[in-house]
Amino acid sequence: MASKSQASILKAKNPASNFNGKAASQGQWGRAWEVDWFSLASVIFLLSFAPFIVYYFIMACDQYDCSLTTPVVDLATGKARLADIWAKTPPVTATAAQLYASWVIFQILLYMLLPDFCHRFLPGYVGGVQEGAVTPAGIVNKYQINGLQAWLITHLLWFANAHFLFYFSPTIIFDNWIPLLWCANILGYAVSTFAMIKGYFFPTSAEDCKFTGNFFYNYMMGIEFNPRIGKWFDFKLFFNGRPGIVAWTLINLSFAAKQQELHGHVTNSMVLVNVLQAIYVLDFFWNEAWYLKTIDICHDHFGWYLGWGDCVWLPYLYTLQGLYLVSHPVELSTPHAVGVLLLGLVGYYVFRMANHQKDLFRRTDGRCLIWGRKPKVIECAYSSSDGQRHHSKLLVSGFWGVARHFNYTGDLMGSLAYCLACGGGHLLPYFYAIYMTILLTHRCLRDEHRCANKYGRDWDRYTAAVPYRLLPGLF
User: Fold this and answer.
1) How crowded is the C-beta side of 101, counted as CA atoms within 13 Å?
2) Cα distance between residue 8 and residue 184, in whole Å
3) Cα–Cα distance measured from residue 140 to residue 133, given in angstroms and rounded to the nearest whole number
4) Are the C-beta atoms of 404 and 448 separated by less than 8 Å?
5) Structural contact between residues 297 and 291, judged by C-beta atoms closer than 8 angstroms
6) What is the C-alpha to C-alpha distance for residues 28 and 456, in angstroms, rounded to an integer?
7) Is the pLDDT assigned to residue 10 strictly greater than 60?
């Protein structure tokens, strides 16, 4: 659930490695053809408990001062009942429904009707119509890359309203936070259900569909590889980036405005969370064309995992730091604040430069310099489903000689920085770092399993040359 989350999201930054040939092995692309008992149990667990986890965190902030243990203790000791907690939870409102519907429609209009113009005047930015990777069925989809433009327009309008127009309060998101949660759930379940029905009855590309015969697995992990409506509305690209990730920075700004309203000032911790997470979001949209070649687009199908996850999990759990700081304003000492800022910036640098090195290596077929030297490579060979033999190269220089997924390491450093900005008073704001550690470790292992099957002995030579996955000397 990542986008962003998301991604979430998180949540969207993992280079795909299985799609260099015309077609990938049918046993390797996408999700599983058959479902083992562990996968099915995991799917049912997530379908059952992920919505409850989101509700529990938001409820804890609303009713229990961000404590994660007090609700459990109160329920165990009889001080509270589930019915009491539910009764205190704000329901969906007409205001929230109108606000959320307007938001989604606005993002759809920006996505569909306004071709990108940022690439015309921003040096180095790749926007406009771009091609994605070759799908297993041999299809190359085209995408309208305009996420940066949508983000800029949305935030310019937000700041114009906050300082000149005054149509609504900058705290509007916080003030409707729980009613908006129900609206996000409605959209998440609706789009996931529609995607499943579409996969059965009118898929965009029947050759890129997978059916297991298990309803729960099909619903969660998706059937269609790239479901679309019309020529341009791509479900994966839209819901992975918009509306959740565009909203991420607006949500943080609304939390900062609420902290200002309640306490008379915005703390340096709130500023750090806003700045560091804004860097992450802007990086996502600046590199949206590169994102077309990542594991989310090149490997995952579109089901509840992405549909609901991008609508609910990403915007509600990736923003817990800002939500926490509304009611627990933390003013960091200068050394603490500088340390958090440096950790976040260094983590971002490692993440971005590691991805840049791999992208440069791929674009030039190794005819480039990494850290001032000709890159070292492991020559690999693999077979596609049509029996053809293909050759590839694995980079073992630069950050990719330090660890096999050192871009993830930089990502985790940034995730920890967000959390450390909140001090050490509660566990709740540290959920993001814990979740990202689990998510990226799992993705690391999943990606390596596919690569081991794909490259065979060549992969063994690669792991011998670069023995660590994430943390040199440890893992």
Assistant:
1) 7
2) 14
3) 6
4) yes
5) yes
6) 13
7) no
Chain position carrying tokens 């509840």:
304
Distance between CA atoms of residues 407 and 400, nearest Å: 8
Smallest Cα–Cα separation from 136: which of 344, 297, 307, 323? 297
* 114, 126, 153, 284 from 111: Cα distances, Å: 6, 16, 11, 16
Residues 6+ apart with CB under 8 A from 180: 96, 99, 100, 173
Q: Residue 457's CB: how many other CB atoms inside 10 A?
A: 10
Strand partners, 228: 234
Q: Which two tokens stand for residue 48?
A: 């059952």
pTM: 0.88
Q: What does the DSSP 8-state code read for residue 227?
A: -
pLDDT one-digit tens code per residue, 193-213: 999 999 999 999 888 888 888
At 79, list the tokens: 């001080």
> Torsion-angle region of residue 166: left (phi > 0), alpha (psi -120 to 50) or beta?
left
Listed residue (238, 241, 231, 227) closest to 197, CA to CA: 227
d(CA 299, CA 225): 8
Q: According to the model, what pLDDT value does residue 14 have?
A: 35
Q: Give the whole-angstrom CA distance, residue 213 versus residue 291.
A: 31
Token duo for residue 471: 């943390």
CB 130 within 8 A of CB 143: yes
What pLDDT, on the 0 to 100 scale, is given for residue 25? 40
Non-local CB neighbours of 412 within 8 Å, separated by 6+ positions: 347, 433, 436, 437, 440, 470
Q: Enter the tokens of residue 420.
A: 């450390």
Closest among 4, 57, 49, 53 to 310, alpha carbons compared: 4
Using CA atoms, how far apart are residues 108 and 15, in angstroms rounded to an integer?
A: 27
- Concatenating the DSSP letter of every residue in 279-323 gives HHHHHHHHTHHHHTTBHHHHT---SHHHHHIIIIIHHHHTTHHHH
Q: Render the burial of 330-346: b for 16+ CB within 10 Å, e for the rest.
A: bebeeebbeebbebbbe
Which region, left, alpha or beta, applies to residue 90 given φ > 0 means left and ψ of -120 to 50 means alpha? beta
List the one residue out of 466, 326, 473, 360 whose CA is nearest residue 405: 466
